[in-house]
Amino acid sequence: RKMASSGQTRVVWRHIGLHGHSVGTFTADIAAIQWKSAIVGSEDVSTSRLIPAKSLEGAKWTVFGRSGHLRVQTSKESGLKHEMRFDGFPQGDFDKLKQALQDFYNVTLEKLSMSSAAIPKKRKSQEDEEDDDEEDEEDPPLKPKKETKKPKLSADSAKSTSKKRKDPNAPKKGASAYMFFVKKNRARVKAMNPDATFGELAKLVAGQFKELSPDEKKVYQDMEKKDKARYKEEMSTYVKPASDDDDDDDDDGDTGKGGKKKRKKKDPNAPKRGMSAFMLYSNAIRARVKEENPELSFGGLAKEISQKFKQLSDEERAKWDKKAAADKARYLSEMAAYKAKKAGDDD
């Protein structure tokens, strides 16, 4: 049997994702590369992959965010997908993986930069470049454009062009194929890149969506078609609420800039709304968490409290839910008394 330079006859990585599917275990030995999903009985289309040693033709390594990604190319004779991608390798394991592929399969792991891994831009043909050169030579210098002043809108015009309020009961628009992919894979990508920022995570998910094969992408495109059909059907029976334009005409000039209605002042004597279980919990522990973590920003403090709230036991959570229910009952009782008093004062 062949063995790696370290003396091992098998190397194993856990928490490795098969691109577009779940997380599992990646194993490389003299016979084959094998990946097996860690989720038993999942709805995932693929629960395992086996790539025989003789089917391997090449391997490429790229880094996105804080993890490494392996692309394995297979021969046409194998009947397997030409390229498979595995995500979530530690960046520092490049040399270990390269040595294993070289020892077991005599395949050299090629390290690609982000620029070379990206999709190349479409090149212009020679004729297009020549046309561009001719246009540059013949085009006369541009004349400065005259500044045109935009006409000021009257109060009535501004009022008519103001943004309409969205009906909360209106049917929800159909989601795109990309959004369906994000919903299914974002948690998986986040688990493989726990230190990635929100922006980095978005780039990782978008990059994986672009690299889907036509067959893999069709799954999400079918979801998009189905959801758009659902939206169209719901819109056919949807009735828009009556416009509030007539009510606006009865206002006694109580408008601000642009014809927008001024916001009514809140009565300082009105009862305070009931707090949610999370807000009650946050108010109770905020000072202590801030003292224990003085370096946290306002946003970081909110995240820390949110994490602690999610980790509460069922018994602890029930205690805060009970407090929230009591506060809601207090608000409803005080509100009923407040409205009755206000009606009596008006009379």
TrEMBL record:
<protein>
    <recommendedName>
        <fullName>HMG box domain-containing protein</fullName>
    </recommendedName>
</protein>
<dbReference type="InterPro" id="IPR050342">
    <property type="entry name" value="HMGB"/>
</dbReference>
<dbReference type="Pfam" id="PF17292">
    <property type="entry name" value="POB3_N"/>
</dbReference>
<dbReference type="GO" id="GO:0005634">
    <property type="term" value="C:nucleus"/>
</dbReference>
<feature type="domain" description="HMG box">
    <location>
        <begin position="171"/>
        <end position="239"/>
    </location>
</feature>
<dbReference type="InterPro" id="IPR011993">
    <property type="entry name" value="PH-like_dom_sf"/>
</dbReference>
<feature type="region of interest" description="Disordered">
    <location>
        <begin position="209"/>
        <end position="275"/>
    </location>
</feature>
<dbReference type="InterPro" id="IPR036910">
    <property type="entry name" value="HMG_box_dom_sf"/>
</dbReference>
<dbReference type="Pfam" id="PF00505">
    <property type="entry name" value="HMG_box"/>
</dbReference>
<feature type="DNA-binding region" description="HMG box">
    <location>
        <begin position="171"/>
        <end position="239"/>
    </location>
</feature>
<feature type="domain" description="HMG box">
    <location>
        <begin position="271"/>
        <end position="339"/>
    </location>
</feature>
<feature type="compositionally biased region" description="Acidic residues">
    <location>
        <begin position="127"/>
        <end position="139"/>
    </location>
</feature>
<dbReference type="InterPro" id="IPR035417">
    <property type="entry name" value="SSRP1/POB3_N"/>
</dbReference>
<keyword id="KW-0238">DNA-binding</keyword>
<feature type="compositionally biased region" description="Acidic residues">
    <location>
        <begin position="244"/>
        <end position="253"/>
    </location>
</feature>
<dbReference type="InterPro" id="IPR009071">
    <property type="entry name" value="HMG_box_dom"/>
</dbReference>
<feature type="compositionally biased region" description="Basic and acidic residues">
    <location>
        <begin position="212"/>
        <end position="235"/>
    </location>
</feature>
<dbReference type="GO" id="GO:0003677">
    <property type="term" value="F:DNA binding"/>
</dbReference>
<feature type="region of interest" description="Disordered">
    <location>
        <begin position="117"/>
        <end position="178"/>
    </location>
</feature>
<feature type="DNA-binding region" description="HMG box">
    <location>
        <begin position="271"/>
        <end position="339"/>
    </location>
</feature>
<keyword id="KW-0539">Nucleus</keyword>
